[in-house]
Write a structure and sequence with these properties.
alpha+beta, 11 strands, five-stranded mixed sheet, two-stranded antiparallel sheet, elongated
Length: 243
């Protein structure tokens, strides 16, 4: 009896892929991340999407980062003391589930690990709680400003909006009517400043920059677009002042 050669090795692998992934999950206690929804081929056969298998330790770190996305590496190590942190994080990086961002923290470069979109899809992170990996540093700085206000007994609102007004303020303190705008690019600086004063009627504006040179550049830009009265109500600070 001859073998049916119409079914190729590739066909067998493709059709068995989901079954093998399920076996890994059941036998090893590992977790399977499917990279897309199930589909069908031209003949109508069900196809299981490609998958990534993550260990329990990797899943634990992913879930922790989903709940608390602004953790520096030293904090991750404190939360998971019995874990091989380097191996776990390297595994997540290689699987495309986290990125590495080096961000200055009090003079030192801290390592942060934003979740990628596919990691957030797998963890079913809601749109409201998602942190875009492309804008992670901006979101991190905004969080630091918000946290600083809380430490000083003030209530800050991230991504503040008001009825009938287009646009948002990065962080707004209602009690002092102070707007905080994180600035890593200067192309929208004038527009953001005017928006805070003219539309949101902020009493004070704080522009948050990364370096001394960026602060000086922001001041020069603002001098060219804000009236003197609004300029007098504007401060430019480094992000380190909020740490």
């Amino acid at each position: 009896m001859g073998f049916d050669k119409s079914v190729t090795i590739e066909d067998i692998y493709r059709r068995m892929r989901g079954f093998v992934a399920e076996l890994h999950e059941l036998v090893d206690g590992r977790n399977v991340i499917h990279l897309g929804p199930p589909s069908v081929d031209e003949s109508g056969e069900s196809l299981v999407p490609e998958s990534i298998i993550v260990s329990d330790d990797e899943l634990a770190v992913l879930e922790c980062l989903a709940k608390m996305p602004y953790q520096v590496l030293t904090t991750i190590k404190k939360n998971f003391k019995k874990m091989d942190h380097d191996q776990v994080l390297q595994g997540l990086l290689e699987k495309g589930l986290v990125l590495r961002e080096k961000v200055a923290v009090k003079g030192n470069a801290g390592n942060f690990f934003p979740l990628t979109e596919k990691a957030q899809d797998f963890l079913k992170v809601s749109e409201k709680k998602r942190v875009s990996p492309a804008f992670y540093v901006h979101s991190l700085w905004r969080f630091w400003v918000y946290r600083s206000l809380l430490k000083n007994g003030l209530e800050g609102i991230c991504e503040y909006t008001a009825e009938g007004i287009n646009g948002r303020i990065d962080v707004y303190c209602k009690s002092t009517k102070t707007a905080y705008e994180v600035t890593r690019s200067f192309k929208n600086l004038c527009g953001n400043a005017l928006k805070c004063f003219n539309f949101f009627k902020a009493s004070e504006l704080v522009i948050v920059c990364g370096t001394v040179s960026d602060c000086e550049k922001a001041k020069d830009v603002l001098k060219g677009c804000l009236p003197q009265e609004q300029l007098g109500k504007t401060k430019v600070k480094r992000i380190t002042e909020f740490l």
